[in-house]
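User: Hi! I'm a student and our assignment asks us to look at how structure tokens line up with a sequence. Could you show me two examples?

Assistant: Happy to help. In each example below, the sequence comes first and the structure tokens follow. Example one:
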Amino acid sequence: MGFSKKFRKAIRDPAHAMEVVKKNIDIKAGKLIYKNTAGFQQNRQGEKTKQEVQKSRTKIIVKEHEDTILSLKNEGLANLGCPFDDKLLKRIIEKYNNFIEDDKHSMSRSKFQDKIYSRVLKDPLDKIPELKDLLSDKIQKMISGYYQGNFQVSYFSIWRNYHIPPEIYDGEKEIFANHWHCDTNDTTQTILFTNLMDVTSEHGPLEVQSIKRTKELVKKGFGYRNNYNLPDNIVNDPNNIIQHIGPVGSTLWAWTTVCLHRATNPAPGKFRDMMQIRLKPSVEPYTDDWPDEASSYQK
């Protein structure tokens, strides 16, 4: 968007223009101090959250998950294989497939020119109550080991991305989080991303760059999701990109507030089904009272 167009838009809506200015300042401050694009306020909130839960923390030794926990802490991501019960996951996927294409049970997660390119399940925990059984005792122990204390599920969503025509995908418009970005959430939060189908590079897999590489790109001048401010061959260097591909159930544990990541575009005729479970440290012990937020999904 050219300067004159931005100026005219600012004149029409000065309140929105001020919010944009504040957001840009917050992002720039966060990049300068923390070397990610989550924003200064969210990084500070992450520090506050750590302080709040410090008193409830205990020394938890989890030898069987030690490599996974170290990978998440040091690299910002850890490949878990398929950590869930196969029969349970199969039942969940069967129900999901019965609902996801039905307008009564799903809704647009992202559309462009009245065409839906990503569809999310509404009220998934009501439709598929088995979802709350996914976090077995073993998985809970692993998560507690990472947070060195209690945790809760802060967000849950389950969705399908479709192919976007090149003339739209290659433009400035971001359709379904397909631009490199860090999530703007409290930076203590992490996400379990699970493929609900066999995913190859043709299905538009999630891509992630490590904490170290994210900091390097920010130091080189990385801008934001709508303007990288760096050459394509640097931002999209394949040597620094991890693709979340693999058989159904494949799960990537990612620290998405400090790692650049994006969705990619499924090939023509392909789609990708994904589930995310967002986690946060907590003073209170884990409960299965998950928030059902997919029906009020906001990009």
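Example two works the same way, sequence first and then tokens:
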Amino acid sequence: MRFPLVLIATVALALTAVRAAGASVAEVEFPTGDGHQLKGVLYRPDGNGPFPAVVALHGCSGLRDGSEVYPRFRDWGQRLAVAGFAVLFPDSYGSRGLKNQCRVRKRAVRVDRERVADANAARLWLQSQSFVTADRVSLLGWSTGGATALWAVRPQRRAKTEGQDFRSAVAFYPGCTRLFNTAWSARVPTLILVGSADDQTSAAVCQQMVNGSRGRSARVSIHLYPGAYHDFDHPSRPVQVRSGYAFSVDGSGRVHSGTNPAARADAMKRVPAWFAR
């Protein structure tokens, strides 16, 4: 998979950038390397940089609710930008005309294929920008995006990528079962954050996966939040039960989702610290 850096470098930001507190946000577009154009949203700190950067991967619901970026991603983008990071959210679903995929079992955009390619395309685009420190681009993902982050940092993937590698990775409540079955390990420092009560993805399997990677992996850490469910870092979602999901721990399709204030507060400190290492 090759990405002409000249072409990537010439992709322009949107003509107008909306101001956020201490940061700007703009629409961007860049090539995926397979003949498609990938749309994304860029949160950028004030100033010329260069800044460390983060590729941020949405979950199964997608990046947007209509034309608006979902509150969780907007909140994280603004917070990380104010903390000094440029943050690029590639829109893996919207760019391909897809909507919410949470109730779709056989997905056309796979976490271990197309979305890994999207993550690398976003990394290369960031590394071609003058406001980014090319060797300090990290990876962040939520749920299916978290699983993609874990697939993307497996040692076997490095031979298929170009440019400076990701510096580190953080995965929020990823699905770990398939990764565990492949004897997962990471080539860059990786942090996994998951609630102990999560019934959409299994914290226990993620813990087993991390334990199994000891001694053959870069630094990997997992932090379990007692009593927290999926989406614990959402800024304002009361805990609710949702049904009809394609994947759940017990196979029923019923999952809990909602904010856990203590877990969210801890994650808000832990994630920037991990990327700043």
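Here is something you could point out in your write-up. The chain has one domain: 5-275.
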